[in-house]
Design goal:
4 helices; mainly alpha; elongated; 136 residues; three-stranded antiparallel β-sheet
């Protein structure tokens, strides 16, 4: 069923992972150039993989356990991406004198929040189905 609330959460996670990277910069380097996710192939690939996992999870509504696993993998991918951004921001040369951190570093956090909400909704659906099966 595509009309469930977890579908909306998963869609918003996909939009955050794939759509926001086109709008906001990750950081500004020492030369004043804005670095966006498309400039770095590894970041772009990680964001697109996260969006793809969210879209795949939307269409796995018949298999809620696999949907939960895919969503958890997506959370793990976003946590790794967030860790890389934190490491990059802490080791950025010049620090406050010449570099700026962009709002784009928080995109994985937004995606993680939506994915956690989707997992909670999937779990509540699973409990509802189990309780309905008990009455039969």
């Amino acid at each position: 069923m595509i009309q469930r609330i977890q579908t909306i959460y998963l869609f918003l996670a996909a939009v955050a992972s794939s759509g926001l990277i086109w709008l906001v910069s990750l950081w500004v380097d020492g030369e004043g150039n804005e670095v966006v996710a498309m400039d770095e192939n590894s970041y772009f690939g990680a964001f697109m993989a996260s969006a793809l996992l969210s879209l795949i999870a939307i269409f796995l509504y018949n298999n809620r356990k696999l949907q939960t696993v895919i969503s958890r993998l997506n959370i793990l991918l976003n946590l790794i991406l967030l860790g890389v951004f934190v490491y990059r921001s802490l080791t950025m040369s010049g620090e406050t004198a010449v570099s700026e951190k962009g709002i784009g570093m928080f995109i994985p956090i937004i995606s993680i929040v939506f994915l956690v909400l989707a997992n909670r909704a999937i779990r509540s659906d699973e409990q509802l189905v189990k309780s309905a099966d008990r009455f039969r």
